[in-house]
Each structure stands twice: as structure tokens, then as C-alpha cells.
């Protein structure tokens, strides 16, 4: 407080000097002063005037201040010391010190204590005033009740904290849900693969059935011929038996001639060769299908130099059942195609999905045409080509199916987006293609389509892998 006292002395001296100058110019107007006091009393904000000392004596106060501090009359309020109004122990001292140091202060938000002990928030202003008559300085100013605003602010703060907490909890939950979604997406991928393999297995059964059937037919034919040959051998044995009588031999010779004629040995020789060739071919076909299937179903994951032509041919073998009824397939590979670093198994899956879509689009077109006239059906075409374009290998799969609208084209990569009926499309095909090509290989997929004319899906893979 000692620095405060010396501060005060200095301020008093300054103010006296200033006042001396003012008094020579004008006289105080008492009538005006009374009006002013009246006005202050009617103010909605609390106004005060207090002595500047350790405790502060309230010299003037208005009704609004008395009400704010919980007193019935101004006189009751004036019975307490000004410092008792301040809630925090050192607040009054700081308040007076700051006011004196700067001659005034504004917008100081502080807590005051009401008569009943309750606290209120006020926005306080103060200025130091010199009273020339009494040659004293005083503190005067206003207290505006901002409790409601403060409480609202506190409420907002706690709401904010609450909100942040909730956002945190929500975020954690969302993250967990996202993880779950990711893992279920992996499961969907796995399921899709299984589904494709299931469809393949059905296709395989059909594919294998035909060659196996003619292998069986040929074997039965060969067994018949074998039976004939064995009966001939028996007759020849009788013929070459030294112990046999001439009559027995003559009988055997006649029998042999009859059988040879009956079996038509000369021409059956060619049939036997043809049957053996056919059976071998059937067996080759079966083993080709089985190898392709095994190849296709091999688990993926490893990036390795891959012969794109072989991968496409392999996929065409396993997907044959999907397209052979509706379309012819052409394959055109660029000359000197280098091997591409990629995950062959995943790539085949992507190709498979695109080829199935092409076949379905062609089938849709054929169905639409057949609805108009039953003879209008024409075999579709799926044209596959591979070219090197800059640093990329471009695999294009073009179909002459129904095509799709621009609205559909924009959404084809969305998981679960399908225009097919429930049960016939999972909406996963192209989203899986996108995932394999873009995410796994750092490539690109583009779909161009013209409704009624067809669609081209282009898969771009970086030559050196991603
Ligand atoms: N070659 C195509 N021709 C026409 N529309 C296609 C073609 N490929 C995809 N679409 C459209 O994109 C949609 C999504 O395809 P996809 O992701 O494979 O799921 P799904 O085949 O199960 O519907 C299909 O429902 C179809 O409307
Ligand atoms: Mg599909």
C-alpha cells in the first residue's frame, strides 16, 4: 500500500494543478449537478463513489448498486466497507491500485459478494476523481451485473467441453466402426472370391463333362473292339495249334475269315486310332481346364513378373461359361509385350469381374432385342486388347452390350452399387476391380460407355509395378 500512497500524493499534486487551471475558466454548476445525481439514481447499472484507502468508505451509491448487492436501501449498503464487496481477498487492492495507476479502468470482470453471501459477476469501471472543495481524491464508477451472461458463458463452456467429449467418444466409435467395416469389406472380398470360385466350379463341371463324355464313349468303343480282337485271337490260337486235326484247323480258318469279315478289321483299325486320339484330346482338355482353375484359385498377394497374355487366356478359360452362349471373344496383344509386375491372381479376378459384366451387358441387349422380335438376336463380341501406352500397360475390354447411362457410369466403383436385381448382382464387381487396380497396383480404371452401343473398361497398370 506504501507505493499506492506515494502514487496518490503525486496524482493529487497533478490534479490540483489541473484544477487550478480549470477554475480560472468556469464555475461549477450546482443545478446541473442535482439533475445528474437524480439521473445516476435512475440508472440500471450500479454506480458508486468511494474513498481511496485500505478499506474504502462508500460515499455515494445508487439504488441499482444496492439492489445488485442485495441491500434494501442505499443507506444500508453504505454501512459496509467497499472492500467487503469484492469476492476475492486481494481483488479490492488490485482494483484500486490499477485505477490509480492509470487514473481509470474499464471492463474489469470480477465477482462481488452480495449481502446474503451469494456471488454475482460484474463488469466494473472506475476513475479517480479529485474533489476540489474537500481536496481529496475519490474513486467512482459503475458495476454492471453480467451474471446472466457469465453463467451463459460458463454453460456454453461446459456444453463445449461436453460436446468435445461426445465428439471424442463418437470419433472413437466411428474409428472402431470403420475398422469393422474394413474388415467386413475384406470378408466381402473373400466371399466374392468364394462366390466366383463357386460359379467357376459349376462352370468347370459343365466344361469337364463334355470331354469326359466323349472319352467315355471312345473307351466303350475301344472295349467293344478289344472284345472282337480277343475272339479273333482265340480263333487264331486254335489255327496255330500243331496238335489240332486238319478238320479242326479247317473249321478255325473258316471261323477266322468269317470274324474278320464281320469285324471289318481294316476300317476298324482307323477307327481305333481315331478313338485313341479323341480320348487323348479329351483328357488334355480336362487337364487344361483343371490347371486353369487351379491357377485362378491360387491365393494372391505376391507381386511378380507376369505374362499378361497368359493371365488373360487363363481367365478366359475359367470364365468361358459366363460368355460362350452370348459372345465371341477376340484377344489382341501388342507385339513384344514385356512381363508386368503385378499380383497375377488378383489381376485375374479383376479381369474375370469385367468379363462377366461384359457378358451380362450383352445378354441384356440380346434379351431386349428378343423382346422386340425373336429373330433379332445376334451373337455379341467381347474384344480384349493389351497395348503399352507410355509407362503403362493398357488392357481394354470392350463389349457391344446395353451400355450404361452417365448416372450409372459415375457410380460403378461404389461398393454395393448395382442396377441388377437383388440376388443377381452384388455391386461388388467393379469396386473390387478398382481396389485391385488402383489401391493394390497404383494403376487406373476407366469406364467409357454409350447406352445402346456398348462399354469399354480400360485397366492401366504401371509397367514396373506400383
Ligand atoms: N460392361 C458393362 N455394361 C453395362 N453396364 C455395366 C457394365 N459393367 C458394369 N455395369 C454397370 O455397373 C453396375 C455395377 O457393376 P458391378 O460392380 O460389377 O456390380 P454388379 O455386376 O454386381 O451389378 C452394374 O450393375 C451395371 O449397371
Ligand atoms: Mg458385376
Notes on the protein architecture:
The longest helix is centred in the middle third of the chain and has 93 residues, at 147-239. β3 (104-113) and β4 (119-131) form a beta hairpin. This protein has helices at 2-23, 30-42, 63-68, 74-78, 82-85, 91-102, 147-239, 246-263, 265-297, 308-318, 320-323, 344-372, 406-409, 429-440, and strands at residues 46-51, 58-61, 104-113, 119-131, 136-145, 304-306, 327-333, 340-342, 380-389, 392-399, 444-450, 454-462. α7 (147-239) packs antiparallel against α8 (246-263) and α7 (147-239) packs antiparallel against α9. The mean pLDDT is 87. It is built from 14 helices and twelve strands. It folds into three domains: 2-145, 2-Layer Sandwich (Beta-Lactamase), CATH 3.30.450.20; 152-295; 299-462, Heat Shock Protein 90, CATH 3.30.565.10. The chain is 57% helix and 19% strand. The protein is α+β, with helices and mostly antiparallel strands and 466 residues long. The strands form three sheets. Strands 2-1-5-4-3 form a five-stranded antiparallel β-sheet. It has a five-stranded mixed β-sheet with strand order 7-9-10-12-11. The protein binds adenosine-5'-diphosphate (ADP) and magnesium ion (MG). Adenosine-5'-diphosphate binds next to α12 and α14.
Strand pairing plus helix content: what structural class?
A: alpha+beta
How many E strands? 12
What percentage of the residues does DSSP assign to strands (E)?
15-25%
Low-confidence stretches: none
The distinct bound ligands, ions and cofactors come out as: adenosine-5'-diphosphate, magnesium ion
Domain count: the total is: 3
Order of H and E elements: HHEEHHHHEEEHHHEHHEEHEEHHEE
Treating each run of at least 4 consecutive H or I residues as one helix, how many helices? 14
**Shape call:** rod-shaped
Stated plainly, the CATH topology of the largest domain is called: Heat Shock Protein 90
For the terminal residues, how far apart are their CA atoms?
A: 77 Å
Which sequence of strands runs across the widest sheet?
Answer: 2-1-5-4-3
The main β sheet shows up as:
5 strands, antiparallel
Overall pLDDT metric: 87
Cα-atom radius of gyration: 51 Å
- Helical content (DSSP H or I, runs of 4+): 55-70%
Highest CATH level, the class of the largest domain: Alpha Beta
Task: Give me the CATH superfamily of the largest domain.
Answer: Histidine kinase-like ATPase, C-terminal domain
CATH architecture of the largest domain: 2-Layer Sandwich
Amino acid at each position: 500500500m506504501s507505493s499506492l500512497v506515494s502514487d496518490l500524493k503525486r496524482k493529487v499534486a497533478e490534479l490540483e494543478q489541473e484544477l487550478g487551471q480549470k477554475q480560472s475558466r468556469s464555475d461549477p454548476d450546482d443545478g446541473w449537478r442535482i439533475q445528474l445525481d437524480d439521473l445516476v439514481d435512475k440508472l440500471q447499472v450500479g454506480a458508486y463513489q468511494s474513498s481511496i484507502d485500505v478499506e474504502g468508505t462508500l460515499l455515494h451509491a445508487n439504488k441499482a448498486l444496492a439492489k445488485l448487492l442485495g441491500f434494501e436501501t442505499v443507506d444500508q449498503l453504505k454501512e459496509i466497507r467497499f472492500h467487503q464487496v469484492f469476492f476475492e481477498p486481494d481483488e479490492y487492492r488490485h482494483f484500486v491500485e490499477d485505477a490509480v495507476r492509470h487514473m481509470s479502468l474499464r471492463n474489469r470482470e470480477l465477482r462481488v459478494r452480495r449481502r446474503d453471501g451469494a456471488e454475482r459477476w460484474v463488469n466494473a469501471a472506475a476513475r479517480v476523481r479529485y474533489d476540489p472543495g474537500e481536496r481529496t481524491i475519490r474513486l467512482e464508477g459503475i458495476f454492471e451485473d453480467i451474471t446472466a451472461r457469465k453463467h451463459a458463458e460458463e454453460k456454453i463452456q461446459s456444453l463445449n467441453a461436453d460436446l468435445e467429449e461426445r465428439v471424442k467418444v463418437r470419433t472413437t466409435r466411428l474409428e472402431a466402426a470403420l475398422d469393422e467395416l474394413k474388415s467386413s469389406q475384406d470378408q466381402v472380398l473373400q466371399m466374392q472370391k468364394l462366390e466366383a470360385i463357386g460359379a467357376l466350379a459349376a462352370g468347370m463341371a459343365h466344361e469337364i463333362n463334355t470331354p469326359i463324355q466323349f472319352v467315355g464313349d471312345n473307351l466303350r468303343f475301344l472295349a467293344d473292339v478289344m472284345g472282337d480282337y480277343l475272339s479273333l485271337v482265340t480263333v487264331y490260337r486254335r489255327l496255330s495249334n500243331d496238335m489240332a486235326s486238319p478238320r479242326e484247323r479247317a473249321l478255325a480258318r473258316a471261323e477266322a475269315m468269317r470274324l474278320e469279315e464281320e469285324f471289318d478289321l481294316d476300317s476298324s483299325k482307323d477307327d481305333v486310332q481315331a478313338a485313341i486320339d479323341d480320348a487323348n484330346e479329351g483328357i488334355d482338355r480336362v487337364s487344361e481346364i483343371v490347371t486353369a482353375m487351379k491357377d485362378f484359385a491360387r491365393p494372391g498377394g505376391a507381386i511378380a513378373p507376369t505374362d499378361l497374355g497368359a493371365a488373360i487366356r487363363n481367365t478366359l478359360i475359367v470364365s468361358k461359361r459366363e460368355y460362350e452362349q452370348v459372345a465371341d471373344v477376340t484377344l489382341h496383344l501388342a507385339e513384344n509385350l514385356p512381363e508386368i509386375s503385378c499380383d497375377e491372381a488378383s489381376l485375374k479376378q479383376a479381369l474375370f469381374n469385367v468379363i462377366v459384366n461384359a457378358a451380362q451387358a450383352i445378354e441384356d441387349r440380346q434379351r431386349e432385342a428378343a423382346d422386340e422380335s425373336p429373330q433379332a438376336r445376334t451373337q455379341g463380341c467381347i474384344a480384349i486388347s493389351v497395348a503399352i501406352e507410355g509407362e503403362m500397360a493398357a488392357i481394354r475390354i470392350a463389349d457391344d452390350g446395353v451400355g450404361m447411362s452417365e448416372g450409372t457410369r459415375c457410380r460403378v466403383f461404389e461398393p454395393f452399387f448395382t442396377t441388377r436385381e437383388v440376388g443377381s448382382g452384388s455391386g461388388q464387381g467393379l469396386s473390387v476391380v478398382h481396389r485391385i487396380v488402383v489401391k493394390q497396383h497404383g494403376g487406373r480404371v476407366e469406364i467409357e460407355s454409350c447406352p445402346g452401343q456398348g462399354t469399354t473398361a480400360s485397366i492401366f497398370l504401371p509397367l514396373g509395378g506400383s
